[in-house]
Structures are given as C-alpha cells and as structure tokens.
Amino acid sequence: MSDASVLAPGRDDARGPRTTRQWVVLAVAAVVLAALCLIAGRWQWNRYESREIEIDRIENNWSAPAVAVDEILAGPGAVVPESDVWRPVELEGSYVTDATVLLRNRPVAGQNGYHVLVPFEAGLPDGQDIVLIVDRGTVPLGSDGSEPDAVPAPPSGDVTVVVSLRADEPASTRGAPAGQVQAISTAQVLAAGADGADWAEGRTVGAYGALRSETPAPDVQLATLPKPNTDPGSHLSYAFQWCIFAIGAIAGYVLLWRRERGALRGENVSAGDLLLASGEESDGEGVRARRPARERRPTAEDEEDALIEAQLR
Questions:
Q1: N or C: less crowded end of the chain, CB within 10 Å?
Q2: Could you tell me the pLDDT band of residue 12, with boundaries at 50, 70 and 90?
Q3: What's the whole-model pTM score?
Q4: Quick one: pLDDT at residue 110?
Q5: Do 4 and 13 meet the contact criterion of CB atoms below 8 Å apart?
C-alpha cells in the first residue's frame, strides 16, 4: 500500500502533503485575490454612489421651474455649476442659423441620427450678451448615411427658448467631416461652423443647452430629445458579487487546508464540514444532535496483541 493511499483512502493520488512553503504561497495568493476582489467591489460601489447622486440631480432639476439664464450663467465665461446641470433656463435672443453644425455618432433611444447644434445669441439684463450652443433635437440619417437629407431651420427673428443646461463636453480628438463634430464642445462646434468661431469671441460660456421648448414654434419640428436616463445600472449588484468572490477566495483556502489535514488523519473533509464545525448535525427529524466522537483506528501493535491473545486461548 502506498503512502498516498494511507493519507487519503480511496484516492488514486500519488501527491504527498503540501509543504509549509506551499501553504504560505497559497495563503498569499488567496489574500491577494480577495484584496483584488474587494478593490473591484469598492470601485463598483463608488460608481453606484456617483450614479445615485447623478440620478438625484436629474430628478430634482429636470422638473424644476425654468429660471432666467443669468441666475446661473452670469455672463461670458461662466461655467454651469454641477448642482445646476439639467436645470431648465429661459433665454431670449436669436439663432445663428448659418453656424449650424451636426453632432454625429450620438444615438438617441437606440436610433442613429444627427443632433442639430445651433448657436444662440442671448441678451442679459445687464446689457451683456452670451452665445450658447443649443442642441435642438435630432434628424435621421440620410440616404447614404454620411449626412441627413435635410436639416429643418430653427425659428427666425426673436425667439424665446427653454433649455436644460449641460456642462460643456471635452473636445474630441476624433476627426469629422466638414460641418460636423464628435462632441458638444463649444469651441469645436463654433470652429466647425461656416464662418468659424471669431464672431463669438469673448461671448461664449462653459455650457450648452438641450432644447425643451422654443417660441415661436419652427415650421418643421425636429425629433425631441428624451428625458435623461435614470436607470441606476448594475453597479450595486456587481459590488456585492465581488465581495462574495473575496469571501470565496478565503473560504476556498480554508476548505483546502481542512481537507488535507483531514486526509492526513484518514478523514474525509468536505465543504459541509465547515457548516458542521460546531460538532452538531441534524438527526433527520429537525433535531440537532451531537455527533459521536470518531472511533480510534486500531494500530499494527493492537492487531498483533489481539492475534497473540487468540493463540493463547
């Protein structure tokens, strides 16, 4: 009979018991794996909290009454505060139709199309005026997909618009055809216009507006922009899953250690033993009963003594 058979009866395994060094390596690996899982879980938790803050801001600001634009953007160069993102504001002025630019690669509700971006010149009560990019809505792809078949014009003359304020997006590094952009960055949108950005120099703000309404109404209405998404996503469930993986890494190491130590004593140790570590188990009738102690296995010396006693009888 081989040593492996003695260590683990019923197993065809020639491997001997692990050394202390091997157990240390396994322990370090389990701890590192658990730590990485906890880091990933923490990252998902942070994303969940950030998403919850964003959802609260959307729900609070989207339904708030519109205020005059100068209550949030006091003048040229102003940046929309994070707490006022999605807040509706009212502007009076006119569209600069000749500077219309299209935003590409930004589907809405799963539908491909182009966002129509038009600069809006608005006067402020203190005599200043600002230029704000307005996302008026979307138009479908054209017959060849490179541009829309038609872009309906905004209302002409004096117009009153209500927009939801959005933070200016970072400039995109991706190229785009003439008259198109890949991000709603005020500088890039103005630069992509027919006359460039010089005409708006010193009057821009660090924000753009998602159109809610315009008076008078245009001759042809664009597809309206939808309410922002408030789905929290799966970040919370992912955070809990990573925590479970971390616990599993440590529990797996403990189980492996207990099974090998049990094999050295001639025992069969399973995952259920971890749950029965208190020494209690069910008797089949819903009653917890104490397990009897294992019987000591007879040694070779015991067997020899029993054989001598039998011969003397």
A1: C
A2: very low
A3: 0.70
A4: 80
A5: yes
- Angle at which helix 235-264 crosses helix 20-62, to 10 degrees, equals 160
**Structure confidence by residue, pLDDT tens digits, 244-296:** 999 999 999 999 888 888 776 665 555 555 555 444 444 445 444 444 544 55
Residue 308's Cβ-count burial label (10 Å; 0-12, 13-18, 19+) is exposed
- Local structure of 59: helix, strand or coil: helix
Backbone phi and psi for residue 89, each to the nearest 5 degrees, phi listed first: -130, 155
Using only the alpha carbons of the chain, give its radius of gyration: 36
Cβ neighbours for 55, distance < 8 A, ≥ 6 positions apart: 230, 232
What percentage of the chain exceeds 70 in pLDDT?
A: 79
| 20 sits in which H/E element | helix 20-62
Q: Which two tokens stand for residue 124?
A: 């402020």
Long-range pairs for 231-238 at CB < 8 Å and ≥24 separation? 232/48, 232/51, 232/52, 232/55, 233/47, 233/48, 233/51, 235/44, 235/45, 235/47, 235/48, 235/51, 236/44, 236/45, 236/48, 238/41, 238/44
* Amino acid in position 287: V
For the chain, how far is it from start to end, CA to CA, in angstroms?
Answer: 32
